[in-house]
Amino acid sequence: MKWNNSFAIGIETIDEQHKKIFEHLLAIENAVAKRDPWHIQRFLLSQLADYMKFHLAVEEALLEIVGYPGRLGHKEAHSHILEQLAELERGMKENPSADNLVRFFENWFLNHVLQGDREYVVYIRKEMPALLRA
C-alpha cells in the first residue's frame, strides 16, 4: 500500500506524519522482500513502532488542545493500536513476514485514519478551521 493524496485529512502535520509511516512500512516490506537479516528487519520495525508512538502522541495532544469531545475514545483506539503493534513485533521475530504487518497497517489506515481521524477533522473544521489547509 502506497501513499495517495486522497488519504490526506487536511492537517498538514498529521498528513506528513502519515506519509512518514508509509515510508517506514515500505522500508520494512523491502527488507523482507530482499530477505535482509532479522536484525535489520527488527531495527526497521523498531523505528516504525517508535514513530507510531510519536505520531499518536502528537495526535492526542492536538485533540486535547482543540477540546475534541471524542478524544478519550480516540486515545483508547491508539492504545489498542500500540498493543497490536507490540504483538506484531513479537510475531515477526518468530515468522519474519511483511504480510501481517502490511495487513495490520492497511486495516489501521482504512479504519482508524480514513474514518476516525476524519471524524475529528469535521470537529476541527467547525471549531478551529485555521488548523486545516485551505
Topology:
Blueprint: H1 12-33, H2 38-66, H3 71-94, H4 98-127
Helix pairs in contact: 1-2, 1-4, 2-3, 3-4
Could you name the key traits of this structure?
single chain, 134 residues, mainly alpha, Four Helix Bundle (Hemerythrin (Met), subunit A), 4 helices, 0% strand, elongated
CATH topology call: Four Helix Bundle (Hemerythrin (Met), subunit A)
Radius of gyration: 16 Å
Q: N- to C-terminal separation?
A: 27 Å
Please tell me what the overall shape is: elongated
CATH class category name: Mainly Alpha
Number of strands: 0
Q: Per CATH, which architecture?
A: Up-down Bundle
**How would you state the average pLDDT, rounded?**
86
Oligomer: single chain
- N to C succession of SSEs: HHHH
Tell me the number of helical segments per DSSP (H or I, 4 or more residues long): 4
Question: What does this protein look like?
Answer:
The protein has 134 residues and is an all-alpha fold. It has one domain: Four Helix Bundle (Hemerythrin (Met), subunit A). 78% of the residues lie in helices and 0% in strands. The protein is built from 4 helices and no strands. It has helices at 12-33, 38-66, 71-94, 98-127. α3 runs antiparallel to α4. The longest helix has 30 residues, at 98-127. 14% of the residues are buried.
Short account of what is shown:
It is built from four helices and no strands. By secondary structure, the protein is mainly alpha-helical.
